[in-house]
Structure formats: structure tokens, C-alpha cells
Amino acid sequence: MNCIKKTLQNNEASIARADRSKAIVIIKTEDINRKVNKFIKDNNIKHTNKDPTEKYQAIVQHTLKNNNLIIEKQQYKYLMNVKPTTPKLNIYIKTHKEDKPIRPVINNTQAPAYKIAKYINKKVQHLLSLPNNYNTKNSYGIAEELNKIRINENSRTVTLDIKDLYVNLPLNGIMHATKYWLGKNNNGKDVIKQLLNMIDTVIQQNYFQYKDTFYQPVKVKQWGHHYQVQ
């Protein structure tokens, strides 16, 4: 292993995982840095002056204490990351695509809001009853639906891929749609308000560290100027 590390260093190369496979990619360090910088620039992600983890931990504590209709007091200790750390950016190389772009994967398991994010996900599924007319659980479901469709020579199949999906999610739309469906399912105003506040806490904590620099999408930084939970 030491010999491999030394060889990589001497050749200014790095090791990365390939996306959608178990292959290992050996790539020039300057190339992987260029790909990361392109992803950051294309998605309007800016660096922050310091690690915001401590600030976000305080926000999580405040959120847990002030949303008693959603979180019972005895659950507090289970929803706090006692020793939170900054989410790290991991790089996967899309070897199956032209120019071999990166797939950024951020490990949030030790982030301040990770546990309440998982909790909210289950809570929202319980409080919402969505029609899901255009969703499917897996490829078997798609196959069953397609099998019911009559296809002729004029039919076309189209697949769409959203570039960098998660950093381009419409935050305002998500919040307004969630509020609408929570009301549609006869949830009380106070429950809706508290749940939206918790979702807002999670959304704000979309940040990561790459090497020694901390980053956050500008969309998240400006979030409070566009939407205020009431």
C-alpha cells in the first residue's frame, strides 16, 4: 500500500471510485480538482468563511425544543448528533459518460440535522397521502405498467435525466407543495407550522467540506430572503 501511495504521489495522481460499478479510477489530481471546481461553479456553490457546524447544531437544538407537536420530549436525545461533524464531499467518476464528469456524494450521517431529517421523512409520509399517479417503486412496476400499454409504430419512448438533481431542487416549490398537501390531509395549522419549521432547519443545513474549504449552494444561503415559515 505504501508503494502504491508513493507511486501515486510521484505521478500526481489520485484514486476515485467509478460511478455505477465497483471499478477503481486512477486520475490525475489536477483533473479531479478541475472536475470538482466545474461542478461547484456550474451549480452556483460558494465557499463559506468557516465551518458552520456549530451554528447549525444550535439551530437543531432550538428546533427540537420548539416543535413539541411533532417531537415528544423523550425523543430529543435520540434526534441529536452528540458530536456532529462537517459532511464531506466524496467523488465518483462517471466513466460511462462523455468527458467523465463527477457524481458528488456527500456523507451526511454525522451532520447536525441528519437524524431529524430521517425522522421528518417518516413523519411526512405518515401525515401526507399523495396520489402518486406518476411514480413507480422499481423497474418491475414500470414493466407491469408498460405491458398494459398498446404500442404501435408511432409510439416513442423518452427518458429524461435531470442534471445535478439535488442541488437544483426548487426549494420554494417544495415548501409550498408540502404545506398544500399537509392542509389537504386535514392536519392542524400548528402541526403544519412546526413541520415546515423542521423542514426549513434541514434545508438550511445543505453544506459540505472539500479538502480544507467549506461550501454551500447560494440558493440555500438566500433561502430566508425568499421564504419565511409562518
Major sheet: 4 strands, mixed
Shape: flat
Helix content: 40-55%
Please state the CA-atom Rg, rounded to the nearest Å.
Answer: 21 Å
As laid out across the biggest beta sheet, the strand order is 2-1-4-5
Tally of helical runs: 9
Helix and strand succession?
HEEHEHEEHHHHEEHH
Provide the low-confidence segments as ranges. Answer: none
Distance between the termini: 56 Å
Q: How confident overall, as mean pLDDT?
A: 88
What number of structural domains do the residues give? Answer: 1
Q: What structural category arises from helix and sheet content?
A: alpha+beta
Q: Tally the beta strands.
A: 7
**In percent, how much strand structure appears in the residues?**
15-25%
Helices and strands, with pairings:
Layout: H1 2-10, E1 13-18, E2 24-28, H2 29-42, E3 45-48, H3 53-65, E4 88-93, E5 102-107, H4 114-127, H5 139-147, H6 171-184, H7 189-204, E6 208-210, E7 213-217, H8 218-221, H9 223-226
